[in-house]
Design goal:
Layout: H1 8-18, E1 27-28, H2 31-37, E2 43-44, H3 55-64, H4 68-73, E3 75-78, H5 82-93, E4 98-103, H6 108-116, E5 120-124, H7 131-142, E6 145-146, H8 153-170, E7 175-179, H9 184-196, E8 201-207, H10 212-219, H11 244-251, E9 254-258
Parallel strand pairs: 3-4, 3-6, 4-5, 7-8, 8-9
Antiparallel strand pairs: 1-2
Helix pairs in contact: 1-3, 1-8, 3-5, 3-8, 5-6, 8-9, 9-11
């Protein structure tokens, strides 16, 4: 799929759709970080976003586009925690029933928060069961609409609004670094960078134990791995997506890894 299947116009539309619901999070700087790196760094504080992560942007944008039939049926998602909370909160705000498939070893605080936001949580073993199969099966059985955590056009467009805001707040940047799991934030950010800061090198960072994204980027095709064991529970993905990979391959500058140490 060509990267133009999801465009800058989709990010702009998502920005309008989530306006007044998602927070426009602040950008902060650090003298200490600047001195240690020899650069001027800007940090987009998505930890201050609703439910504590950028995932709210994509989740709300996706669910807000549901048809009346989809709204009546409900939504299902699978996630280790942040997308789970984002879908549960977004669905509840929009009056839609959320069902969330989560790994049984997900942080207890994320499971409880997902329930607190109104989600029906279904647990599974991430090392022996396939969350995508579970989600697809439940969607068929219950008439739910599945919104995956990253490989969905509306999710990608929603995540791209974080970088859109960043560039609006800082102006053009030399480098943009984003965390990488399945690629929703990285691909959305790359679309925003191309539009607002075309000279910016967009770089994804993933766990060393789960470098499927790096291998895919450098090899030119999606690489599937076993569930990585890493403290970065939100980045324990097994592969990039059919929507995210083409954008990353065409617009990202590189993908690097960091160890858990």
């Amino acid at each position: 799929m060509d990267q133009t299947a999801i465009t800058w116009d989709d990010v702009v539309a998502a920005s309008r759709r989530i306006e007044g619901v998602a927070h426009r999070t602040p950008v902060v700087t650090s003298t200490t970080a600047n001195e240690r790196t020899g650069a001027r760094l800007h940090f987009k504080c998505e930890n201050l976003q609703r439910m504590g992560a950028f995932k709210f942007r994509g989740a709300y944008n996706a669910i807000a586009r549901f048809t009346p039939e989809q709204r009546a049926g409900g939504v299902i998602a699978y996630s280790s925690g942040n997308h789970a909370q984002a879908i549960a909160l977004s669905a509840t705000l929009l009056g839609i029933r959320p069902v969330i498939v989560m790994p049984e070893d997900a942080p207890a605080v994320k499971i409880e928060a997902t329930r607190g936001y109104g989600g029906e949580v279904i647990l599974y073993d991430r090392y022996t069961q396939d969350r995508e199969e579970i989600g697809q099966r439940l969607a068929r059985e219950r008439g739910l609409t599945l919104i995956p955590p990253y490989d969905h056009p509306d999710v990608i467009a929603g995540q791209g609004t974080a970088a859109k805001e960043l560039f609006e707040q800082t102006g053009p940047l030399d480098v943009l670094v984003t965390p990488l799991g399945g690629g929703g934030l990285l691909s959305g950010s790359a679309l925003a960078a191309r539009a607002l800061s075309p000279g910016c090198a967009v770089i994804g960072v993933e766990p060393e134990a789960g470098n499927d994204g790096q291998r895919s980027f450098r090899g030119g095709e999606i690489v599937h791995i076993e569930t990585p064991k890493t403290i970065a529970d939100g980045a324990q993905t097994q592969h990039l997506g059919n929507h995210t990979f083409p954008i990353i391959r065409n617009l990202a500058a590189d993908i690097v890894t960091v160890s858990d140490a």
